[in-house]
Amino acid sequence: MLKNEKFMGNALLQKTYTVDFLTKKRVVNQGHAQQYYIEDSHPGIVSKETFAAVQAEFAKRSNLRGYSKTGKSAYTSYYPFSGKLFCYNCGSKYTRRTSGAGKHRIITWMCINHMNNGNNACAMLAVHERAVEKVFFRAMDKVIADKDDFINKLPSC
Fold it and tell me: Is 94:85 a contact under the CB 8 Å cutoff?
């Protein structure tokens, strides 16, 4: 829905085309037939600026660093450290892993490259979430203790 140009009042014609008129089979047009883009064909639901901002956010999220077969990975912010931890060795994202159940449940963060391709691709081991939290809280305590110095170093908006 957020990628459909019709919401801003434009129309892309012939996204699909009929292959066989007898069976009425339609397929996605991937350059087989001419497509036409018509601006302001009808009143839009959202402004063009809002639509452009949403497309820019899609582009930003699709270009976030990560490791996958396509070179990009899915954007997620479900956990506080999602998308913020990167492997020191290979630069891939860390992903959250859970093992065990109940009081034996262990939560770790692991390099996606190591997880998918083994020790030969990346030798970094999993890190317990408690250790990540401790390091984060230690860093935040340091920022809070030096808050005047920290605020002075922030760029002005």
Answer: yes
- Which of these, 95, 87, 96, 85, lies nearest to 121 by C-alpha position? 87
Rounded Cα distance between 93 and 104, Å, is: 26
Query: Does 68 have pLDDT greater than 60?
Result: no
pLDDT digits (tens, 9 = 90+) for 32-62: 999 999 999 999 999 999 999 999 988 877 6
Range name among 3-7, 12-16, 70-74, 149-153 with the lowest pLDDT average: 70-74
Contact at 8 Å (CB) between 38 and 10? yes
Contact 73, 67 (CB under 8 A): yes
Stated pTM of the model:
0.52
The closest of 10, 5, 14, 4 to 36, measured between CA atoms, is: 14
Q: Give the contacts of 48 (CB within 8 A, at least 6 positions apart).
A: 8, 9
